[in-house]
């Protein structure tokens, strides 16, 4: 009985690949608990296979990477292109490396954005989102991306 009860009451850690559907039929994939290169790659692969109208990645800094930070953020950019993401929004000092690299790789400049803070990113996201979009959000916990997730949930 204890096993059955434990399984019935089981909950994943919050903000790890949580999927929400808004009233305007936008799918939010909230993976904002933490970020590493491998988790970014896996999330982008998942988004790339999703059947939404447009695939939007909102990516922030992966923190505490030290000397490897620039290279790993640039490697994330390669995954954005590889997985045919339609729109990329990046937030943060280190995420600027993702933005610059996708442009270098030929990503459509009208569909790539970089912001230094969440509030500016939220403003742009509100201008971009349409019904049937799928939005994947991923950053280290210190980037406070839950603020962006909650804004989308409230407004859409």
Layout of secondary structure:
Layout: H1 2-8, E1 18-21, E2 27-31, H2 37-49, E3 55-60, H3 69-82, E4 87-91, H4 95-104, E5 112-115, H5 118-128, E6 134-138, H6 146-155
Parallel strand pairs: 2-6, 3-4, 3-6, 4-5
Antiparallel strand pairs: 1-2
Helix pairs in contact: 2-3, 3-4, 5-6
Put the structure in a nutshell.
This protein has 156 residues and is of the alpha/beta class. It contains 6 helices and 6 strands.
What does this structure look like?
The chain has 156 residues and is of the alpha/beta class. The protein has one domain: Protein-Tyrosine Phosphatase, Chain A (Alpha-Beta Complex). 42% of the residues lie in helices and 19% in strands. Strands 1-2-6-3-4-5 form a 6-stranded mixed beta sheet, with helices on both faces. Strand 3, helix 3 and strand 4 form a beta-alpha-beta unit. Helix 5 (118-128) packs parallel to helix 6.
Question: What is the topology, as strand order, of the major beta sheet?
Answer: 1-2-6-3-4-5
| Mean pLDDT rating | 92
Instruction: Count up the helices.
Output: 6
Secondary-structure class: alpha/beta
CATH topology: Protein-Tyrosine Phosphatase, Chain A
């Amino acid at each position: 009985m204890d096993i059955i009860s434990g399984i019935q009451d089981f909950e994943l850690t919050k903000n790890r690949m949580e999927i929400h559907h808004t009233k305007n039929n936008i799918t939010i994939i909230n993976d904002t608990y933490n970020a590493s290169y491998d988790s970014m790659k896996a999330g982008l692969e998942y988004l790339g296979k999703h059947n939404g109208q447009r695939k939007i990645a909102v990516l922030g800094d992966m923190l505490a990477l030290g000397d490897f930070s620039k290279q790993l953020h640039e490697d994330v950019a390669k995954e954005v292109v590889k997985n045919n993401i339609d729109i990329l929004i990046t937030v943060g000092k280190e995420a600027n490396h993702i933005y610059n690299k996708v442009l270098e790789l030929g990503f459509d400049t009208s569909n790539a954005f970089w912001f230094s803070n969440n509030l500016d990113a939220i403003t742009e996201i509100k201008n971009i989102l349409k019904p049937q979009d799928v939005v994947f959000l991923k950053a280290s916990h210190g980037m406070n991306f839950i603020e962006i997730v909650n804004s989308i949930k409230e407004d859409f």
